[in-house]
## 1
Amino acid sequence: MVLVHPIHPGNVGATARAMKNSGLRHLVVVSPLQFDMERARWMAGGGRDVLEQARFVSTVAEAVSDCQLAVGCTARSRRWDWPVLDPEALAEKTLSDPGPIAILFGREDMGLDNDALLQCQALLRIPTDGEPSLNLSQAVLMVCQAVFRQAIASGWEPKAEERQGPRSAGRKRPGRPTEAQPDPLATLNAQSLVLNEAIGLLEQTSYMTGQNEEQVRVTLGKLLQRAAPTEKEIKILRGMFKKTAWRLTQGPNTD
């Protein structure tokens, strides 16, 4: 779970509590406003260990850099046709996808801003009757419980003492072959690097004339998400783009 610029320390503590009760452990907090750890502890209850181990970072990009997918919880309209999930669909994806998924929640008064949403590849909508606004920690609890219920349905059993499974989301995955491990999927940080180089390469051509850079970036990002490239494949793509960019600056090959 990633909290982006939370205002109230109590919501950070309550988030840690909701996560602990649902078998989740990895909390990341992005530049909280006037954060008070003691006030957060008051609301953390049995989730104080999750709070104490939370990672505090300066940017959303840093928060999601080691993940393969970032999903932003927002009531805003779609932009660039991002896929929209409800908590149950997100829970299924969390348990079925091979890599870590970051679930982003924005500050209490304004939600996720455009810069944060631009780091996401999908949106999360929590269905409501009427006013779509929810308390931050309550929204987190609803998502955590959706993941928890899906994990239980998939055969995961919480430990009596810690209620923590083998992975950050406390989930048990189906058995996997141990003889050969596939190449690891590329993280969002690696995907961001290849997107930057792709945009830089396109800017050396006439393609970007009249194009919206944000839309191009999101479109290419969605393509990468569907392709699910490995770290090795990302390195190959980056090599291709670098060589092409170098050739464009050097002129035609006369060898």
Note: The longest helix spans residues 231-250.
## 2
Amino acid sequence: MLKLDKNNKTVAYQIPLTTTSGKIRIKEREFPNQYGIPVATRSNPFILKHYVEWQIGYDVVTNEINDKKSTTLTNKQFIGANGKTKSLFELSEIIYYFFDWGIITKQQLKEVSDFIKSTDNNLLVDVNPDFPIKRTDFISKELFGINFQKSDVSYPLLIHKFGRFEVITEIIIKEKQRAIGVQPMLYLCFPVTELKTQTPLLGRVARPKELADFVFNRSNSGILLEILRIFGILSKNHKHDILQILNEILKLK
């Protein structure tokens, strides 16, 4: 999934353009605070309203690595908050190479680590009282002769913009599907015009199983560190994992 260019010190991540489900999707919306709608790119030409929604990860359980969850750093491991052995992956993988190449410095990583350590566990996103999931009182609603009790549920959505870049993170807080509690989910979003392809995307449909490159380089490397900081404040488990990842990367130098 990663294309490493040590000479030019860039890392390109391959983005699938035709998937409508999964971790990476092409979606459409007018404004960043609107809910995006998935786009069938094989039949709908790319336009300026289209963007990439990437649920970027930072680790992979080592014994679950396969073709769909591959990493170039299998030997860079840590113990996650869930007790499982994990390897660096995606976000942490890219940061590892940028640290190795001197784009990201030891001081920068230590500053991120110190920031995360300083955060109050009682104010992390998943337990912060300012970000509750809200439910209205039930009211009666009849539909086709069937009586229902209706309540509206709203989920907190946090958006962070990265300076001058047309790149944002979205954090949505929802109930855990397989456990008690809530789970903040982070998405990296950016316009399709940020993608590198052999032929321009705008005005054409995607080719079967087409991939495009999203390139990380020196100029946008700060985005990676900021995402790491944000991950570190989502929950106690995220905080633990990010600090372990930073320790593992810092072992390089």
Note: The CA atoms of residues 104 and 221 lie 7 Å apart.
## 3
Amino acid sequence: MLELPVYNMEGQQTGSVQIDPQILGDRVRPQLLKQAIVTYQANRRQGSARTRNRGRVSGSTRKIYRQKGTGNARMGTVRSPIRRGGGVTFAKQNLVFDRTLPKKMRRLARNNAILAKILSQDALVVEGLAFEEPKTKRMGELLRGVGASRGCLLALHQPDDNVVLSGRNLPKTDVRLVQDLNAYEILRRKKLILSRPAFEVLTNDPVTLRSGRGADRV
């Protein structure tokens, strides 16, 4: 069994909780994590950079002058790539960088990322995580108290506007729902912070990360 420290809202450690590494894939698979991260970043690319070929340049398609009898070299339209204002010879066109990863692999990569954070002692649980009103200063004090001021991913079990508003202006701080976690977002931040209900969702249903079975949003 692996142990995660438990902190209160004052940043003081009050105990620990245990989790079975088997439910997170038993071991960390670096190749799978790399594949998941590359897939995630590739799918974020627009691929909209392009240049205009001779078909996209404005201008007449009429031959500039007749083929023979002028004494000049043969010449086609004004859109020719060899003329000023013409199209690009090997124009860059729209590219599709989309990649797919099977659902089971996405889920396993996510769980492996959580396991990697636990093994490196960069994961913790906060008990009683709640704000009566948005308070960025208090959120900053909490993160400093738990050693997450250099960047963290805070996972909640349900939407909480006060928590989101308290953390959104802090640098390198992301607030997500636990069912929306993915391997890339987990690994890109130094610390992984789980609210106590989010940790219970993780232990009870490590597949969909939901209190009840539902659609996959990994």
Note: The chain has two domains: 2-45+99-204, 46-96.
